[in-house]
């Protein structure tokens, strides 16, 4: 069965429309969130959110290290080692770096 040119155009347009719509949603979310924060600051009701960097680095490091280890093993068993193996080694290295940061910062706090 032969594809018509109209079907090919529609198939090509669908991802473009999805990207444009999601970009519009993200833009308006950022715009309205910014205006909301400005109004809260003017009213004196804005509270700066707390961000625990050490807990974030621990969680992100564990997730990335586990994902990277699983991908590295899978890609190594799938075929010959090559550039495709970087798809597992890069998250593994980033996760190890974040875990290293967490353990270094934890050691500084206890001293």
Question: Brief overview, please?
Answer:
The protein is mainly α and 111 residues long. It has three helices and no strands.
Describe this structure in words.
This protein has 111 residues and is an all-alpha fold. It has two domains: 1-47; 53-106. Helices cover 81% and strands 0% of the residues. The chain is built from three helices and no strands. The chain has helices spanning 5-43, 53-78, 86-110. Helix 2 runs antiparallel to helix 3. The longest helix is centred in the first third of the chain and has 39 residues, at 5-43. It is flat. The mean pLDDT is 90.
Total count of domains:
2
Termini Cα gap: 72 Å
User: Count the helices. How many?
Assistant: 3
SS-based structural class? Answer: mainly alpha
Percent strand? under 5%
Question: How would a textbook summarize the main sheet?
Answer: none
Principal-axes geometry comes out as flat
Low-confidence stretches: none
* Cα-based radius of gyration, to the nearest Å: 23 Å
Query: Total number of β-strand segments?
Result: 0
Mean pLDDT level: 90
State the helical fraction: over 70%
| Series of H and E elements | HHH
């Amino acid at each position: 069965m032969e594809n018509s040119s109209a079907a090919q155009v529609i198939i090509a347009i669908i991802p473009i429309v999805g990207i444009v719509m999601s970009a519009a949603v993200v833009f308006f979310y950022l715009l309205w969130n910014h205006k909301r924060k400005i109004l809260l600051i003017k009213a004196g009701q804005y509270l700066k959110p707390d961000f625990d960097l050490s807990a974030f680095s621990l969680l992100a490091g564990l997730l990335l290290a586990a994902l990277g280890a699983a991908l590295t093993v899978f890609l190594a068993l799938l075929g010959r080692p090559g550039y495709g193996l970087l798809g597992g080694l890069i998250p593994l290295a980033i996760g190890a770096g974040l875990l290293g940061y967490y353990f270094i910062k934890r050691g500084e706090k206890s001293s």
